[in-house]
Every structure is written in structure tokens, then in C-alpha cells.
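Most newcomers find our protein records easier to grasp once they have seen one. A record pairs a protein's sequence with a compact description of its fold. An example says more than a description, so a record of this kind follows:
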Amino acid sequence: MQVDDEHEYVEYVRLRLPRLHRVAYLVLGDEHRAQDAVQNALTTLYRRWSRRGQVDNLDAYVHTMVVRACLADQRRPWASVFLRAEAPDTEVAESGGLVDERLAIRQALRCLPERQRIVVVLRFLCDMSIADVAATLGRSENTVKSHTAAALRTLRDAFEPPAAGVEPQLRRSL
């Protein structure tokens, strides 16, 4: 790789790395596995960097690479081994209800089935269109729409106040 290309690659990655980590973490639910998936995607991107001009939307292309790296990570045999029930959350300085809200959202995302969680992350965190998500996952647009609707219904149930005497099942896990 030429010096100018390498400089462009480093600058591109530097600006987008926090967002890529956040996407991978929300898909996988584990910080270390998310870092590995992002690193694998960025290694692939480095090898293909000279062909970036052939891609219409480089950010969507890289998000697709990260999601596919996450899916590949989940297919590995060791991915199903858990040493503890939940990953420990790092302690955050007191910032009011924002921390509690973020933890509740993370927990609610962990309760979603894998495909629904990936669709929600791509649609609303990465701001991808239904067509882009469908292409990324290799699914039809109708499948993406149904996964989105089901996930949003579950998330709404988790955060709406329960009706008199009725408590949604997901709310108990929060």
C-alpha cells in the first residue's frame, strides 16, 4: 500500500472506530468479542483498501463487514462457552438516569433474538435503510421489516409501564 493510501486508511479508521466498536458490541453483547470482530473487519478492509473507489457507500460497506465478522465470530465453537452469566459492566461516573437508561437498553437488546438485535442495530444505530440491511444480511426486505416490527414491539413492552397488575415477561429480566 502506498503512503498516501495508508494515511487515508488510518484517518478513515480513526474517525469511525468508536462507532464500529459500538455496533459490534450491540450485536455481540461482549466487549472483547466485539473488538476481535472489528479488528477482523478492519484487517479485511486494509487488504481491500485500494478497491474502495469501486464501492458506492464506503461506510455501509464497512458496517456490512463488521456485522459479517460478528456473525462469523458467533459461528466459532468457543463462542457458545460462557464463563459467567453476564459480562460485567464497567463502573461509570455518576451521570444521573442516563447510565441506568443505557444499561436498561443494553439488557433489552440482549433479550432480543440475534437476527432482531442485528436488524435493530443496523436500522437505528447505523441508520441503514431497509434495503441496505436486507442486502447486508442476505435476507428479503419483508424479512427485515418483520424482524424490525417484532423487535420494536418487544422493546416497547419492555419500557412501557405495565397495565394494572400485569407485568411483561421481559420487564422482569431488566
